[in-house]
Amino acid sequence: MDYYFNRVTGESVWEPPSAEAEIEMRASHILAKHTQSRNPMSWKKVPIERTPEQAEAKVSELRQHIIGKPVDGETEDELEARIPTKEKLARFAQLAAEESDCSSARHNGDLGLFGPGKMQPAFEKAVLALKVGQISKPVKSDSGYHIILRTK
Q: What's the whole-model pTM score?
């Protein structure tokens, strides 16, 4: 009889893994918390005073700073594809370190590897909708507003 070893969790099981269990993701993010966030305090030890609308506007502006503005009817996908990946990653990392209200800012916004059910549902859904190297539009979660860069 065969058994299955999960390299992520280190578990051995007799049942074959589900397709969902094989999904492993990695992402970086920039979080803008607001007064209605589940924990309205930044890792910087500064109380959060911005409104949800201001938090959404902030991450929208940061996203635009990373990918720029469309030129002559260019779509956002075309605009993002035009930017070299290394440049996009560098801009994202710098802004995450400087601007994010999440403690992952210490790691340039990198959240490491995670599987299904490990992140808030809205966040996970947004990561799964992205291609590797793509940056999301603002994503609302209980923590605040994020822009997400999928890295795996």
A: 0.82
